[in-house]
Amino acid sequence: MFPLQPWKKATSTVGLVVTRGSGCTNVMAAEWTYFVAREPPHIAVVINEKNWTAELVGLGDSFTVTLASSGQADLVDFVGGFSGRDVDKSTTSGLRFEPGSSVEVPWVAGGVAAFECVAVAELDLPQYRQVVGEVVDWHETVPEPAPLVKHDGMYHLGIPVERVAVVAAAGLLSGGRTVRVCATGPVDDDLPFGIRLDALDGTTVELGGYPCDEYGDLLAEIEVPEGIAVSGLTIQVSRPGLRSAVVRLARPHVES
């Protein structure tokens, strides 16, 4: 037993999960809601085994998930605190449903986006059950509201993180003097990465600029010039406006 509650260190967007059963429509707040595949998109929600929702959704069943907006914090608190066994939560003040387009289950309006799903997988966990739904339709709110971020408490999404440094790694490929260099360091323009070799004897070789890929990253294979000792070689990777990365050459890279 953990003396603390380590799950509160995680960060997620709360999902408003809607299910139907026994002639009723139920909605719950799922703190652990995540995308787990892109094409086709799949969403996983983790449900306490004691929750009524756990009885209402199984393999092949339809459900919807709305990623809650920060303006829905009070709604999330309520539907996450009361069970549908105790009260018909479809009557909750401030809750507005929209009809599903591809499933017979409505979705909660006012969130960042809503997803109509069909359950395709389940995983039993201690005290919980994870349900994975394939997204068959979805709806977005325009303009998009700020998401509700759960990190123990509920928060607004913060300001974007400023990226200030190049991060790189390099390794010698087996059987030669070829070095593979990988780096990240996003900037606004497709500016090239600069690579410099620094040998132990003080020799420095500027290798010029190397283009980034479609994601703004670098993956380059370079030949160490003759006369430059590979052992102890240091590689500096730079990009305009960012702090450069300096890495020591690793042992030969083995494909796996």
TrEMBL record:
Belongs to the flavoredoxin family. The keyword Repeat does not apply. This is Flavin reductase (DIM6/NTAB) family NADH-FMN oxidoreductase RutF. SMART domains: Flavin_Reduct. Signal peptide: none annotated. InterPro entries: Flavin_Rdtase-like_dom (IPR002563), Flavoredoxin (IPR052174), Split_barrel_FMN-bd (IPR012349). Keywords: Flavoprotein. Gene3D superfamilies: Electron Transport, Fmn-binding Protein, Chain A (2.30.110.10). Residues 10-157 form the Flavin reductase like domain. It comes from Umezawaea tangerina. It comes from the Bacteria. Its cofactor is FMN. Pfam families: Flavin_Reduct. One of its GO terms (molecular function) is FMN binding. The lineage of its organism: Bacteria, Bacillati, Actinomycetota, Actinomycetes, Pseudonocardiales. PANTHER family: FLAVOREDOXIN (PTHR43567:SF1), FLAVOREDOXIN-RELATED-RELATED (PTHR43567). The keyword Flavoprotein applies.
